[in-house]
Specification:
Distance between the termini: 92 Å
Order of helices and strands: HHHHHHHHHHHHHHEEHEEHHHEEHHHHH
Shape: elongated
Radius of gyration: 31 Å
Number of strands: 6
Strand order of the largest sheet: 1-2-3-4
Largest sheet: 4 strands, mixed
């Protein structure tokens, strides 16, 4: 190997301090060996395959995530989304780096290294450094991911540099662990066994009750998902401490591998002490639970969001949002409200609504609790997610308030209330593809039979007959339905109007008289 032949003239008598030039050449030899081993790693099928898979998966997400909620990312969530995929590359590196370090043992060439100038511990350092290019490539991919998300027109929030560092650090940690295992155990079966343990052990430890916080954060990646995006100040994730922990742990593993290989000079001992201290500090910092101040802030923003929001008027309505989402009101919410309200008749067509953004952060980042309906007249709830199904769901919420007066009023509707037909027409009548939106907003993703229609707060119940009426309305030309809705608005929004009468007013043929379904639906809302 070229990197080792360069060392022939650098031999020095025992006990004699090498000259500065010799030290520089030895460092260059380590780097040269690391570069060689890094190229060799790419020739391993698992590394090459998982690297291609990682790049392909990331590229596919970048170029195909242009619809739905991916088009409106919250960057404080998008940074955590970069952490999981690099673990595949890390697994491949752990196994292949381990095999690379054990290559001389498997081939019986260990004894040949005794005649070389490069000590075993320097070769260990070179193997550890061979993983650095893959960690650097992961960092580049992560930078592209967050940059792509940040330049989207609908992006909100702020990413955390510490969260973005987790993916590259996890890759580096996996490779370094493979080096240490090779120095401790002379069997290539230990690395695959370590992978199995790393996959199974967290599931066993965390399956009962989620596990204590200190235990959860010992693993490289802790994504914490389930709840809608929080404002950045409510996250409470110890991202900086976790990055320090991972960096310190990487240093500890490298130093341990060097010590096992015979490198016991003062520099290695000092590095071991420093990295061990960093690891302990990171563990202590990331193990602390949510502070009382954070829990109080989450409760206040959940119960009284108006105290933390800025409000602006666009058109006839007022829009209140948390600061990070402020721009979304003018770009997304106001145009949709105007479209829905333009289909309404009577006073609802000119009603001044208040659209207020709300969250429920009291149960943490893994909680998925529903928002309570507002009893304030004219107030519409909007969440922190946007895009995809969230758009027609918000339209249903706006239409419900225009028809019922408030979100809480819809909870008093009986099952199969005829006013739900008017709500659905207002919500979806202005959509470019109303039938697809109708399918997406229903809980069972169908356009036939009874189902619940999702909304930011209270869902709307549709019977099979109501579904049929709404489906026929959405298939009619929009201009033919709008005059009927506006001219018969009072009757369409009255709780005393029967479903058959609603169908008649909107120009839809009612179901045949005498059918069991029709009889049940006709009488479902009678007092």
């Amino acid at each position: 190997m070229s990197s080792t032949t360069e060392l022939a003239e650098e031999a020095a008598p025992a006990g004699v301090e090498p000259a500065p030039a010799a030290k520089r050449h030895r460092a260059a030899a380590v780097i040269a060996l690391a570069r060689f081993e890094a190229r060799q790693l790419l020739l391993h099928i698992p590394v090459f395959a998982f690297l291609v898979l990682y790049l392909a998966f990331t590229g596919w997400n970048l170029f195909n995530g242009r619809e739905g909620m991916d088009e409106f990312p919250a960057l404080q969530d998008a940074d955590r989304a970069t952490q999981a995929a690099p673990q595949l590359l890390g697994v491949a590196l752990l196994v292949c780096v381990n095999r690379t370090v054990l290559r001389s043992h498997r081939r019986g060439t260990d004894r040949h290294f005794d005649v070389l100038v490069m000590e075993p511990w320097r070769r260990t350092v070179a193997h550890a450094l061979s993983v650095v290019p893959y960690a650097a490539l992961t960092a580049l991919v992560v930078a592209v991911q967050i940059g792509w998300a940040g330049h989207k027109l609908g992006a909100v929030g702020h990413p955390s540099p510490a969260e973005l560092a987790v993916g590259p650090l996890a890759v580096l940690l996996s490779g370094v662990l493979g080096v240490l295992l090779a120095r401790l155990f002379r069997s290539s079966f230990v690395a695959p066994l370590a992978v199995v343990v790393a996959v199974v052990l967290p599931a066993l430890l965390l399956s009962a009750d989620g596990g204590p916080r200190w235990q959860q954060w010992l693993w490289p990646v802790v994504t914490e998902s389930g709840a809608d995006p929080f404002p950045s100040e409510l996250l409470g994730r110890p991202a900086a401490w976790h990055a320090l922990y991972l960096a310190g742990l990487i240093g500890v593993l490298v130093c341990a591998a060097v010590l096992v290989s015979g490198g016991r000079n003062r520099m290695v001992q000092a590095a071991t002490a420093v990295t061990l201290a960093a690891t302990v500090a990171g563990v202590a910092g990331q193990s602390q639970g949510d502070s009382a101040a954070l829990l109080a802030a989450r409760t206040k923003m959940s119960v009284s969001p108006e105290k933390f929001q800025t409000c602006h008027e666009y058109g006839r309505s007022t829009y209140c949002a948390f600061p990070e989402w402020d721009a979304r009101a003018a770009l997304e919410w106001a145009p949709l409200v105007d479209r829905v309200q333009s289909l309404a008749g009577g006073a609802a067509g000119g009603e001044r609504l208040t659209v207020r953004q709300r969250i429920d952060a009291r149960y943490g980042m893994t909680g998925d609790s529903a928002l309570e309906a507002s009893s304030t007249p004219g107030t519409v709830t909007v969440g922190t997610r946007w895009g995809g199904n969230r758009v027609p769901e918000f339209a249903v919420g706006v239409a419900s308030v225009l028809v019922a007066g408030s979100e809480a009023a819809t909870s008093e509707w009986c099952e199969g209330d005829p006013r739900a037909v008017t709500v659905m027409w207002l919500a979806l009548g202005a959509e470019s593809d109303p039938m697809t939106a109708f399918r997406n907003v229903r809980l069972d993703d169908s356009i036939e039979g009874s189902a619940y229609v999702l909304a930011p707060t209270n869902s709307v119940s549709l019977s099979a007959e109501q579904t049929r009426i709404v489906r026929e309305l959405l298939q009619k030309p929009r201009y033919s339905v709008i005059p009927k809705v506006k001219s018969h608005w009072t009757e369409l929004t009255s709780p005393k109007t029967s479903l058959a009468r609603v169908a008649e007013l909107l120009g839809v043929e009612a179901a045949s008289k005498g059918s069991a379904d029709t009889d049940a639906e006709e009488g479902s809302c009678d007092e």
